[in-house]
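ok so for the tutorial part 2 we go from a plain amino acid sequence to predicted structure tokens. step 1 is just haveing the sequence, like this:
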Amino acid sequence: MDAHLPDLPLDPAVFSNDAEADCCDCDGECCHEHSILLTHRDVNRILARMPRLDPRELLVFFEAHDGYVDIEALGGYPAIELEGGPCFMGLRFVVDELDARRHCRFLDHETNRCTIHEFKPMVCNAYPFIVDGGSITRHRTIRCKRPYHPRTPDEIAGLRATLQEAYREFGEYKDEVARWNDTKGEASFEAFVNHFFKF
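step 2 — the prediction. this is what the tokens look like for a chain of 199 residues:
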């Protein structure tokens, strides 16, 4: 364990919500409606594997008061200063012929599975848990259909490792956004892309 990271506590109560489920038995509900906030590492992982994807097609920047925003998901995410004011970076959801609901662009409608599971965003890896400033909380609105109770030492160790990595990446992202916000330079989308993404 990285000595620079807090020893994130995993109280048994963390696993007590009967509305949760293992992703192996997923019906894709969490891929609808929840706002998926991204870190710079998330975007770099996706674009490295999908180099033809235009960042403008992948990303959306929104204000916290926009009606569709999942306010709880914002947690301690940092606001990014762009032209037009502070905003949050997220995954651009889509609506298509197969599903009229707002949903993740990477959801396979036939299988209800994530098509980028191996490099999916940090918040998806940690779901239904949120790492917010060193505290572990969970979404109040969980979109899972079966109980999810990691009880064995291996399951708990796996969850702890996932959350530790999420905490590390989240911290890096907050630092990077702070550096960007402090530059007071051009706050255009193009400048933002050049600063944050290496692909």
